[in-house]
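Run folding on both entries below.
>entry_1
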Amino acid sequence: MTFRGPRLPRTRRGQRRLVQAVMAGCVLALLPATWMYAVAGDRLRTAADVPRTDVAVVFGAGLWDGEPSPYLAHRLDAAAELYREGRVEVVLVTGDNSREDYDEPDAMRGYLTRHGVPDGRIVSDYAGFDTWDSCVRAKKIFGVDEAVLISQGFHIRRAVALCEAAGVTSYGVGVDAVHDATWYYGGAREIFAAGKAALDAVFRPDPQFLGPREPGVERALARAEETLG
């Protein structure tokens, strides 16, 4: 049996339609990324000029032997710096704890406390399985209305766009990262993740786990006010 591949159109009109279809497909593929850039464009800041905000949100980025990966450590370093400089009062760490032997939030908490952030100023979200879930839970479960989001540059625009869609007024701080294989993989992954992000923003699905409202952020902010008082 002889396999025959698809035939290219032979007429000029057919070729023109093929080119138009390919161009239309490219435009549609780029629309989600364009949306992310438009939403996050004026919301990106550096650690030095981000507005003072009560809450910082740090997204999980993997563990190595139970400790934050280098990429996650850079995010946590930025959060600790913002806390020490008085730009944020509480850090919400959101990540994956779907297995007993994998606990991103507790590893993030431990790292922050070793770098000068009091345990009482850290709140853990154990069901931040993806960016959309983390944003929705920050709003609906932890009552966060405004936050500084911290992630790598290749991810921060999507984080800002999704948290804005979830109702959290957001400023994004993109931390530096070595341009290694992980960085290139992350950048390429964002092209495909943009499509899912656009669908999440439009259809607003519930997170994998929602549950009752938790007062952790509110209590941490109250402790911060007592300290300042």
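>entry_2
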Amino acid sequence: MSLPAEIWHLLLKDLRLEWRQRTALAGLLLYVGGTVYVSYLSFTLRGGLPPAPAWNALFWIILLFAALGAAGRGLGQEPAGLRLYYYTVARPEAVILAKITYNALLLLALAGPGLLLYTLLLGNPVQSWGLFAANVAVGAISLASSLTLVSAIAARAGQSGGGTLLAVLGLPVLIPVLLIVVKVSKNALDGLPWDVSQGPMLTLVALNFIVGAVSYVLFPFLWRT
């Protein structure tokens, strides 16, 4: 079987498992919704909506922790029997690329409703919605792809330490991504033209390809340990 076919079948397997265990996805959506609602209560008690810089920072904080929660449900929570089954039917490159794709789709599914609820409750200071939406989509993919390999590394520490390692190793890796997405979001809030954000957006896309390439090269060595 070719590599794209293996990736497709592994992705379908993850999507079917997610559909059967809908409570896990509902829990992540509940976390995002609950965090947004608590933020709304905090600002309305002070008699107003957050200023644009605080609105921008708070949104990405919520999405960051949603990404950490989604990535923590990946390779680290799969039983040993399933990983042994992977060894016999799939290549490691297909496994990691399918996981990156699945985590990216999952975080996009969280970012969309989360952004809608966020704007409904906390206002909408965005002046360039096209740029902001594109930045959220590419940023969500960047967060998911960066955390997938980190999650695989953390899983090797065992169930007791994997979650802690994911946060410790993941946050430094995500700093470049967060710096770029916050900057582009600020440009969208200010209504600046697309040309101003073209360089950072291309850098973000390049980071996605770099992370994918590094995962493709390094994961087989992690797979054998």
